[in-house]
Design goal:
Helix content: 40-55%
Shape: globular
Distance between the termini: 31 Å
Number of helices: 12
Structural class: alpha/beta
CATH architecture of one domain: Alpha-Beta Barrel
CATH superfamily of one domain: Metal-dependent hydrolases
CATH class of one domain: Alpha Beta
Low-confidence stretches: none
CATH topology of one domain: TIM Barrel
Order of helices and strands: EHEHEEHHHHHHEHEEHEHEEH
Number of strands: 10
Protein name: Polymerase/histidinol phosphatase N-terminal domain-containing protein
GO molecular function: 5'-3' DNA exonuclease activity; 5'-3' RNA exonuclease activity
Mean pLDDT: 95
Strand content: 15-25%
Largest sheet: 8 strands, mixed
């Protein structure tokens, strides 16, 4: 039987629901042998996750997910095996967290222009540490003043994911850049602190659906490869099994073309657990083999 892993998960230190210990226990319960904790702009959950992983016999990979901006597009980079105890690295992450706060406040101003009401206090109350898009989405959805607009737009109160896609992604009404790291800068920083760098969820960020067909925007990837990108999260779920298979085939081929490591994961948060967002991609035919993790480790050992 193939041993499986999930290399893209979040805890309540960013936009996940579970504590690191709860996340590791859930991974054990569903039969995973390893997970990567990759919270947004924080490594606060790594220590607890590693300790629980050692107790339960689950390997925990220390990771990070950072947002980058290129030509008014937002991309996320995953850093694996980062030096999470490094004080300089932690200080740099704190600066990113402060930028996220300012970004949230500017997003509130953008929402005001289209009639959506939300206060920063309501957003901040939902965040244990890092303020991220799901906190903004939840605060807007929970505000009864927004019910009429949201039901008119979506037909009902939307899920957090649907709200983010409509209002907070690149080119959406509430999207603002945060002046954070550029892609080249982020790759250099993550390499500096020991990380292997993989492009997260390209099935969303490098793909657009037009007239029922998927259109791949590969130019951005070629630029990232030039900046030193190590891998691509080719193994992830989009919005249907059919589209996911097309994306996986496309990005596996690009990974081979550019000699990139292949990574994969659910981007598990613990809310809105629609198909493809469950830990370990549990409700899909896609499973991430431990062999992909072994290849990552070989790359780390080879320097």
């Amino acid at each position: 039987m193939v041993k499986t892993v999930d290399l893209h998960t979040h805890t309540y230190y960013s936009d996940g629901v579970l504590s690191p210990a709860q996340l590791v226990k859930k991974a054990k319960d569903i039969g995973l042998v390893a997970i990567a904790i990759a919270d947004h702009d924080t490594v606060s959950g790594i220590k607890e996750g590693l300790e629980e992983g050692q107790r339960l016999g689950i390997e925990v990979i220390p990771g990070i997910e950072v947002s980058c901006f290129e030509e008014n597009h937002e991309f996320h980079l995953l850093g694996y095996f980062v030096d999470w105890q490094n004080s300089t690295f932690k200080k740099m992450l704190l600066e990113l967290q402060e930028r996220r706060v300012e970004r949230a406040k500017r997003t509130i101003n953008e929402f005001e222009k289209i009639g959506l009401k939300v206060s920063f206090e309501d957003i901040r109350a939902l965040a244990k540490e890092v303020v991220v898009k799901p906190h903004i989405a939840q605060a807007v959805i929970k505000n009864p003043q927004n019910r009429e607009i949201l039901e008119k737009t979506f037909g009902r109160l939307p899920s957090v994911d649907k709200f983010i896609q409509k209002y907070l992604c690149s080119d959406a009404p509430g999207f603002v850049e945060d002046g954070g790291w550029g892609i080249e800068e982020a790759i250099k920083i993550l390499h500096r602190f020991g990380g292997i760098v993989s492009l997260a969820h390209p099935c969303w960020d490098l793909v657009e659906e037009k007239d029922g067909s998927l259109v791949f925007e590969d130019g951005f990837l070629e630029k990232m490869v030039g900046f030193g990108l190590d891998g691509i999260e080719a193994l992830s779920f989009r919005d249907s099994e059919e589209n996911s298979k097309r994306c996986q085939e496309h990005f596996l081929n690009l990974g081979k073309k550019y000699d990139l490591l292949i990574t994969g994961g659910s981007d598990y948060h613990g809310f809105d657990e629609n198909t493809g967002r469950e830990l370990g991609l549990e409700m899909t035919p896609l499973k991430i083999s431990e062999n992909w993790l072994k290849l990552m480790k070989e790359r780390v050992r080879s320097g």
